[in-house]
Design goal:
By secondary structure, the chain is mainly α. The chain is 58% helix and 6% strand. The protein has 11 helices and 6 strands. The strands form 3 sheets. A two-stranded antiparallel ribbon has the order 1-2. Strands 3-4 form a two-stranded antiparallel ribbon. It has a two-stranded antiparallel ribbon with strand order 5-6. The longest helix is centred in the first third of the chain and has 26 residues.
């Protein structure tokens, strides 16, 4: 098993989880700066956006997670701040990052959708890399599987197989499934952004749709899903949508104490529907005139005197 602590600075432990998340943020920043050069956007803009967006994303991700697992923290409030032990939710991170992004881009005079399009590949890259922090912490894994499945069917190396042995039981490496899916999403976005038919805002919407599709199916394998109590018809609908996976896999255990609806699946379906409607409505109503490749010029809102 891997030690979640990479090294110590005096008495302070530095965790692999934080290092990996930081690496994802830096790689994403470099990608955004590189693409931003095509539109003559200064690199300082993206650096500042990261400095504002990253803390907002982490805060949103933690608040979101703790809110759905409040019973685990209500008697140990100090544990709320132990983010190095894991326990963040990507949907909360997206909420926090989008709020910060809207405010900052508006302040700088840029159209939010144009900047969101540029940052979409960076976001999925950060998620792709960040999932390996879950790997080190032995979290975000799926239901039990055999060692043979990991070695002979998936052909995984020893360091992954060994880390998927949690208290004597091997588990689906759902962190890996999602990381590989995110790589596919990244390739899709890099290809689409050079296509002339892409309109402003649509690359970001495509990122949300494609990520949500993969997350919906992978989430059903996990055993640590955030959940809530919902109506039986919604539970049945989500089960029907996930049912193609039953041809190959068994669903992961969902503790009834937390609920019967996996939050990530429900939110994912809402995101997919909202983004499809967003793209269709803008095209039908004539609001999608600006292309991804069109120049980006900030509209100054404030003037110094």
């Amino acid at each position: 098993m891997l030690d979640p602590v990479a090294f110590h600075i005096g008495p302070i432990p530095v965790h692999w989880y934080g290092i990996i998340l930081g690496l994802g943020a830096v790689v994403g920043l470099i990608m955004a700066i590189w693409e931003g050069k095509r539109f003559l956007i200064p690199s300082e803009f993206f650096m500042d956006l990261l400095l504002i967006g990253a803390p907002s994303a982490i805060l949103g991700a933690r608040i979101y997670y703790v809110a759905f697992r409040w019973e685990d923290y209500q008697d140990n409030l100090w544990d709320v701040f132990k983010i190095w032990e894991g326990g963040i939710a990507i949907h909360g991170a997206l909420i926090g990052a989008v709020i910060a992004g809207v405010i900052y881009t508006r302040y700088k005079g840029y159209d939010f959708w144009r900047i969101a399009d540029i940052c979409a590949p960076s976001l999925i890259t950060g998620q792709m890399i960040g999932r390996w922090g879950n790997f080190v912490n032995q979290e975000a894994y799926g239901g039990p599987v055999s060692e043979e499945f990991l070695r002979k069917t998936l052909h995984l190396p020893d360091f992954i197989v060994n880390q998927m042995n949690v208290q004597g039981t091997y588990h689906h490496p759902t962190f890996l499934y999602e990381s590989v899916w995110n790589l596919g999403v990244l390739i899709l976005l890099l290809v689409l952004r050079r296509r002339s038919f892409m309109r402003a805002g649509e690359l970001f919407a495509t990122y949300l749709i494609s990520y949500s599709v993969g997350r919906f199916f992978i989430e059903g394998l996990r055993t640590d899903s955030l959940a809530f109590h919902g109506p039986a018809w919604l539970d049945s609908l989500l089960d029907v949508l996930w049912s193609p996976m039953l041809l190959v896999f068994e669903p992961g255990f969902l503790d009834p104490a937390y609920g019967n609806i996996r939050t990530a699946q429900f939110i994912g379906v809402l995101i997919i529907l909202a983004c499809v409607l967003f793209i269709a409505a803008r095209r039908l109503l004539g609001y999608a005139n600006m292309k991804y490749s069109d120049p980006i010029k900030p509209q100054l809102r404030y003037h110094r005197r």
